[in-house]
Amino acid sequence: MRFVIVTGMSGAGKSTALKMLEDMGYFCVDNLPIPLLPRFVEMFSEPDEEVKKIALGIDIRGGQDFGGLKDVLDEMDVKEIEYEILFLDAQDDVLIKRYKETRRQHPLSGSGRVDTGIAKEREKIMFLKMRATYILDTSKMLTRELKLELEKIFVKGQNFCNLYITVMSFGFKYGIPSDSDLVFDVRFLPNPYYIDGLREKTGNDPEVQDYVMGNEKAEQFLDKLKDMTEFLIPNYILEGKNQLVISIGCTGGKHRSVTLANALYKVLEKQENYGVRIEHRDIEKDTITKRK
């Protein structure tokens, strides 16, 4: 039997993850009272039990006694009952935004502020994050990207190191992304903006890519960037980092940065033990500005 406990911060996507696991063939139960957990596990541990894949959602709704959950997990460890913990997390500002958009009240905020409830929740469930088998930070994930990561872990059985990488292109004239971990400046490369026929195109177009990567310095930069990420990523994983944002910038975030970000993404997506996504933050901003 494969038994997965799905937990994490309220608003981080636990309910969505449970629905996805159900579509992947898991028998899913959400918000089971913690005192019933031992009997639940015992019932499905019988050798002739037909259900072989179970996902159980547990969170702080309904005033769950998480001190009791710690005792139950300790008992399961003693009995050598195998289980996995999928912990869904997100940055505080993202969680606050999600609550405001849905107009929902945080389970622990009462009549107070959402950020107070989030702080209380983090404290209560920190022991679960410390015991988690997998940690997914959904701050920047689209629904389809979350599904892809879950399929890697629970369908394809790929190794997973709890790191999700965002490769982001941006324009310096619009500011450096505030959540960047690594920032690279490619304004030293010739700018396609000044080439007839390329100005209106972007780094997603083959003509711009050929122009940018046709420069020897661009290839050298990409090679050095590959070497740096190959060195850094395993060390970030060892340090327990869950989210890594690699930002590549040019003047307007439309040509050179988009081309190099796409090239780095193609390198990183070949790896199977971490997730990676591409984002072009400012690719359309020049067009929008001109319309105004």
Structure write-up:
The chain has 292 residues and is an alpha/beta fold. The chain folds into two domains: 1-154, P-loop containing nucleotide triphosphate hydrolases (Rossmann fold, 3-Layer(aba) Sandwich), CATH 3.40.50; 162-278, no CATH class. Helix content is 42%, strand content 18%. The chain contains ten helices and nine strands. It has helices at 14-23, 37-44, 66-78, 92-102, 114-131, 143-154, 206-213, 216-238, 256-268, 285-291; strands at residues 2-8, 27-30, 53-57, 84-89, 134-137, 164-171, 182-185, 243-250, 275-280. The strands form two sheets. A five-stranded parallel β-sheet has the order 2-3-1-4-5, sandwiched between helices. Helix 2 (37-44) links the parallel strand 2 and strand 3 (53-57). The model has no long low-confidence stretch (mean pLDDT 88). GO terms for molecular function: ATP binding; GTP binding. Residues 164-284 form the RapZ C-terminal domain. GTP binds at residues 59-62. ATP binds at residues 8-15. Residues 1-155 form the RapZ-like N-terminal domain.
CATH classification, class level of the largest domain: Alpha Beta
**Rg from alpha-carbon coordinates:** 22 Å
The DSSP helix count reads 10
The named CATH superfamily of the largest domain: P-loop containing nucleotide triphosphate hydrolases
Enumerate the strands of the largest sheet in spatial order, edge to edge or round the barrel. 2-3-1-4-5
Number of domains: 2
The shape, in one word, is: elongated
Report, as a whole number of angstroms, the end-to-end distance: 59 Å
Sheet-strand content, in percent, reads 15-25%
Helix-residue proportion? 40-55%
